[in-house]
Amino acid sequence: MPRVELYTDGAAKGNPGPGGYGAILRSGSHEKELSAGFYHTTNNRMELLAVIVGLEALKVPGCEVLVVSDSKYVVDAFEKRWIEGWKRKRWDKVKNPDLWKRLLKAMESHQVKFQWIKGHNEHPENERCDRLAVAASHAPKEQDHGYQPSAKGLGL
Q1: What is the mean pLDDT of the chain?
Q2: What is the pLDDT of residue 156?
Q3: What are phi and psi of 72, to 5 degrees?
Q4: Which residues on neighbouring strands pair with residue 22, listed in sequence order?
Q5: Cβ proximity of 31 and 4 under 8 Å
Q6: Which residue among 40, 46, 59, 141 has its CA within the 20 to 30 Å range from the CA of 133?
Q7: Active site residues
Q8: What is the pLDDT of residues 95-150, one digit of tens each?
Q9: 120, 128 contact by CB (below 8 A)
Q10: Contact indicator for 83, 100 with CB cutoff of 8 Å
Q11: DSSP notation for 45-79
Q12: Helix (H) or strand (E) segment spanning residue 38
């Protein structure tokens, strides 16, 4: 079973605002960096998308993947089993259900574990992912079609 480390980070200026994600995939001596910027999104959406894109980039099913993230939002959803309750409640009142569902689908053919690390704490891969995410947020090229502004943010 191939072993893969997936380091991820997301960023958004203004939150919501322009955002980006950065991811590093590593398996043995092979490494790949992924990043993209979006015109209008949130930090949490970018944190999720970093993990999703990393998993979707895997070419071989059945990988043992360790996702290393500074996002409590992402890691706690699995480590504290929030995701199970969200599925039981059919995603009622859950933010970003489109991305959570996409993440679960991307995980299906792999054994995925999550590890939280403190962000901006001189962890080399986390710092690289942060630089990738921030750089991508400064040069957005895509629309986050799943982003839904809150009614509060619209003055409703």
Answers
A1: 93
A2: 37
A3: -60, -35
A4: 9, 35
A5: no
A6: 59
A7: 9-10, 47, 70, 120, 130
A8: 999 999 999 999 999 999 999 999 888 899 999 999 999 999 999 999 888 887 76
A9: no
A10: yes
A11: HHHHHHHHHHHHT--SSS-EEEEEES-HHHHHHHH
A12: strand 30-41
